[in-house]
Give the backbone structure.
Amino acid sequence: MRKILLLLLPVLLLSACEENREKEQQFLLQGAWVLQQLQYASGDSTEKTAQGDETMCIIYKGDSVVYECWLSMTPTGMVIVPKTKADVTLIDKGGGQLLYLENDKPRPLRFCHERDSVSASPLLVIQRNGVLYKYEQADDIYREWGAEICDIVSREKENISNGILNRYMLSSKERQQERKLQWFSFLLALGVLVVMIIANLAVAGHKAKRQLQLQLQQILEVQENRSQGVKEAVKTMENDFFASDAYANLQKSISTGQRLKEPDWVDIEEQLKKVYPGFTSQLRSLYPMSELEYQVCQLIKLRIAPSDIACVLSRDASTISTVRSRLYKKVFGRKGSTRQWDDFILSM
């Protein structure tokens, strides 16, 4: 059970991540937004870009907290200057009009598309002191740097209130190295897990093989240590059984190609237990056989020819041969002929 849980752990973690992502998508403001344009009441506007210039970036945690910073992109990473952290209360006024209170200050808010980019993601438009701030969504920034930016803004809260603005360089190279280290750690842990599973399977296989060897040794010792009186008694019981009407009826059914039914198999097992008291239990303990393999062994013990076994079980003769040679290899751990397996079953 522990092995199964360990194998399922990566799947469960991925499922949890997907579930968290779905929960995040329930918020209207969740994510990072970068200022694209300032539009004034006079009709004038100012374009903003994060490539080399400094612009505003806001990150919403749900719809209740906003983190603000100045942001500029460089060839090697990103420079941010923490600005503020504020509590937000989002109010739906209906008709697509939203209002939220940022530290108790009302900020009209709406989503819109630019006329020449209907297929693009909507812009977040916030009105402050008569100026429209148009932000575009920045999923890449939120995904790569969101948590780190929020942490920096939170830690710099006291410095910001005192008018001290520190600059932070977020290096893409360091992030790539960190990601590589995380992947290496994950692959290393996965490799250790695989090695542990293989080692456990090897130990279990060795124990099973050792147990099988002990069982085979016990069977052979019992056969070798039989007294002459026991051997003669077994021989007498065998002769009586093979001369009985029950065996004659079984042979008749098999010779006509009649498929054996469930009651027939129950009767065969009962007859085998009478003539060979330890046979079925020893056979079951040797190897976890399929029903087909078990039935083949029973019929071999009853001296049924392989061609008739194939007919009774509705299988090809080649299939019956494969079953016998495969059983020999599984039990003895080496290749053997069908005849060797038959001799082993007859000697039990």
Observations:
- Residues 172-224 form the longest helix (53 residues).
